[in-house]
Write a structure and sequence with these properties.
Elements: E1 4-7, E2 11-17, E3 20-28, H1 32-45, E4 51-57, E5 63-66, H2 76-85, E6 91-98, H3 105-124, E7 126-139, H4 144-153, E8 157-163, E9 167-174, H5 178-188, E10 196-206
Antiparallel strand pairs: 1-7, 2-3, 3-6, 4-5, 4-6, 7-9, 7-10, 8-9
């Protein structure tokens, strides 16, 4: 199966612009039904707000959005564009606005809804769903930072570091990168660092 990206967890944001309060909520969902249920929950929770704008993107291709009473194009589409730019799917976002009495204009609304969505997604983080190779990378303390850097540049994720007489990094590597990474590390360390593969799995791993 090909790689795709989803929210790493629940994410929330809040900020005030010209007395209007914006609350952003991002969640991972696997279907339109789940997305719509979350939207309904947020509308119920924030029933007293002027607007509950929303968008979602599902991996099967379904994309939906609503300006919920804001000027057309000033909320739902900008929110959805944040998900598109981050290449994130299976995601729903609701941004609640408590109107503060000052009109923001279409440009101001667009910026506010974009910021609220982006901040909530940053709080959620992003996970890559793909096949990962689990491995151990024993090295010296002097080599540690270089090994961490090389792992990151390969698209790997350091899950844990064990400290003793030496150091062992427990890492996850994209499946197609594991062999070339092992060869590169061996060459860089003049043969002193050898990658040990411990298994593989298809799952979501937070990458940012």
């Amino acid at each position: 199966m090909s790689e795709y990206y989803i929210p790493g967890g629940p994410g929330e944001s809040e900020f005030t612009e010209k007395r209007s309060r914006f609350l952003g909520h991002v969640r991972m969902v696997e279907s339109e039904d789940e997305a719509r249920a979350f939207i309904a929950d947020m509308k119920k929770k924030y029933y007293d707000a002027r607007h509950n704008c929303w968008c979602y993107s599902i991996r099967d291709g379904a994309e939906r959005y609503s300006d919920d009473g804001e000027p057309q194009g000033s909320a739902g589409i900008p929110m959805l564009e944040v998900l598109r730019r981050q290449n994130v799917t299976n995601a729903v976002c609701v941004v609640t606005r408590y109107f503060g009495g000052v009109l923001l204009g279409t440009g101001g609304l667009l910026r506010a809804y974009t910021k609220s969505t982006a901040d909530a997604l940053d709080a959620a983080g992003v996970s890559a769903v793909r096949r990962w190779v689990a491995a151990e990378l024993p090295c010296s303390y002097a080599q540690l930072e270089r090994m961490k850097l090389e792992s990151a540049e390969t698209g790997g994720v350091v899950e844990n570091i064990e400290y003793g007489a030496g150091v062992t990094l427990k890492i996850l590597l994209p499946e197609e990168q594991s062999e070339s990474f092992a060869a590169r590390i061996y060459d860089l360390s003049a043969g002193s660092v050898k990658l040990r593969t411990t298994g593989e799995s298809y799952r979501a791993v937070r990458v940012r």
